[in-house]
Amino acid sequence: MTTAIRETLCELLWELRNNILARTDNPTVLREQKTLQERLHWFKRFMGQVLAQRHCKLTDFASKEVSSWNRKQCRKRLKTLGIAREIYRLRNRSDLDLGRPKNLGSGP
Question: For 71, how many CA atoms within 13 A lie in the half-sphere containing its CB?
Fold first, then answer.
């Protein structure tokens, strides 16, 4: 009996959770979308300081284009930009560690 009640209660709560997350007017979803878009614009604004020159083409998007992307598209682009940023950071750190000058082509 307790198992049946627990399963019913869990199912109801899980369904409620999914309905809240799937709503298009969910404030959390809207806030996350805005944050993702701000992070994409940050990469575009500071691309010369945080990305190698060959990766700057990843920020070749218009503001209006970003506003039309869904969260999945924004997350995918941010993941790619994050990897490119980490590559740039590691490469420049290893250049400095070895006493070589910083790659001038990837600076601002």
Answer: 11
- Please answer whether residues 71 and 22 qualify as being in contact, where contact means their C-beta atoms are separated by less than 8 angstroms: no
Q: How many CB atoms lie within 10 A of CB 71?
A: 13
What sign for the dihedral angle of Cα 40, 41, 46, 52?
positive
Strand ranges in 19-86 using DSSP code E only, listed in sequence order = none
Mean pLDDT, range 51-61, rounded to an integer: 92
Taking alpha carbons only, the member of 73, 91, 82, 90 closest to residue 33 is: 73
- Dihedral angle of Cα 11, 16, 22, 23, to the nearest 10 degrees: 160
Amino acid at 34: K
**How many helices and strands, by DSSP H and E, does the chain display?**
5, 0
pLDDT band of 69, cuts 50, 70, 90 = very high
Q: What is the pTM of this model?
A: 0.66
